[in-house]
Amino acid sequence: MDGKCRLKNNMSVRQLSNELQEIAIKELNEDPKRIPDDLAHIKNWLKKQPHITARTDDQFLLTFLRGCKFSLERTKEKIDMHYTLKTITPEIYTNRDPLSPEIQKVLAVGPMLPLPKLAHAGGPRYNLARNSLVSQHDLEQADVFKVSAMIQDILLLEDDNLAVAGTTLLHDMSNLSMTHIISTVSPTLVKKIMTCVQHGYPNRIKGAIFFNVTPVFDAIHKVFRPFLTEKVRDRMRICKTSEDLFKTVPKEVLPEEYGGSGGKMEDIVAYWKAKVESYRDWFLQDAKYGTNEKKRPGKPKTSESVYGLDGSFRKLEVD
Predict the structure, then answer these.
(1) 151: which residues sit within 8 A by CB, 6+ positions away?
(2) CB atoms within 10 A of CB 295
C-alpha cells in the first residue's frame, strides 16, 4: 500500500494511522467525509485571489486545514500569511537551492533538525536546536533559519505526526554566550523568524523545552520573550538537569549524545542533508509561489507593515 486514501472528486491524501485519526477527530474537528468539500472550498477561494499564487496539492492544503482545526476562514488567513511572509522575507525564502554553498554549509552542521523517533505512535514531532553550533561554525543566522524553513516545508508534505499531533521544540542552550547574540542577531531578524514560525505555518506548538541552560539564559530569554505568542510562552519549560530533561522528554526520542536511544546525531544530520538535497527540484520550482502585493485587494503588505521593527541588540541593556 502507498498510504494514500482516494477521496471523491479524485482527491488523494495519506490515510492517517488509527492513533492520529483519533486525535484529528477529537482535537482538530476533522470529519473525514467532509475533507473533499473543504479542500474544494479552499481551492475555489484561491482561484479568486488575484494576489496569491499557491500550491493546491491536496495533502499540502489538508495540512493547513488541520493546523487551523478545519476553520475555513482561519485556513484562508493562514495560507495568505504563509505566502505573504515568503514574499516579504527574501533573506529566508529566496535562493533555496540545496546545493548552494551557504545551504550546504548549514546542512553539513545541522544546527536545527527534526528527530526521527517519536514518544509513541500518536506523539508530536520533536525538533532539536543546537544553538551554539551557529557561532562555533560561523553560520549566518538567516541561512540557518532558511534551511530550517526548507525542512519545515518537507515536513508539511510528509509528516502526519507534525500536522496532527504537533511539534515540541527542544533547545540545547549549552555553550551559548550573550556576546554572540548581541553581535550577530538583530531584533528585526528575531521578529521575522518568530513571526514565520508562529504565524506562517500551520504549526501546533505543543511545547518549547530549554535545557543545558547557563546563567546567560535569563538575559537571552528577556530578549526573545516579547516576540513569542502567549500560548508559546505558557508552554515553555526549563530543564536544569539531565534528570529534568528525561522526565520531560522520553529517552527513546533523544539522540545518543544526549543520553537517549534515538540514534546518533551524525546520522540524523546526514539523513536530513540527503533529504533536503533530494527535494532540489521541488525547491527550485517552489520559487514561483507567493503573493503579488500589487494585486492584493486593499492595502498591500510590506516587510515594514508586517514586521515594523529594526535595530540591534547592541542597543539593549542586559542585566
Answers:
(1) 112, 113, 114, 272, 275, 276
(2) 12
User: CB–CB of 65/39 below 8 Å?
Assistant: yes
Q: How far apart are CA 237 and CA 258, in angstroms?
A: 17
Q: How far is Cα 256 from Cα 173, in angstroms, rounded to an integer?
A: 17
Q: What is the Cα–Cα distance from 17 to 19, expressed in whole angstroms?
A: 5
- Residues forming a β-bridge with 239: 211
pLDDT tens-digit map of 36-69: 999 999 999 999 999 999 999 999 999 999 999 9
Q: Using alpha carbons only, what angle is made at residue 17 by residues 5 and 200, rounded to the nearest 5 degrees?
A: 80
Average confidence (pLDDT) over 243-260: 94
Handedness of CA 92, 95, 99, 100 (dihedral sign): negative
Residue 50 CA to residue 292 CA, distance in Å, equals: 8
Supply the DSSP string of 35-76, one letter for each residue: HHHHHHHHHHHHHT-TTEE----HHHHHHHHHHTTT-HHHHH
Helix, strand or coil for residue 202? coil
Q: What share of the chain in percent tops pLDDT 90?
A: 67
What is the CA 217 to chain-centroid distance, rounded? Answer: 23
Q: What is the predicted pLDDT for the residue at 184?
A: 59
Tell me the pLDDT tens digit for each residue of 295-315: 999 999 998 888 875 444 333
Q: What is the pLDDT of residue 1?
A: 32
Task: Give me the residue label for grid cell 477529537.
Answer: 26
**What's residue 154's pLDDT?**
97
Q: What is the dihedral of CA 263, 162, 188, 213, to 10 degrees?
A: -40
Q: Cβ neighbours of residue 83 under 8 Å, at least 6 residues apart?
A: 52, 53, 54, 289, 290, 291
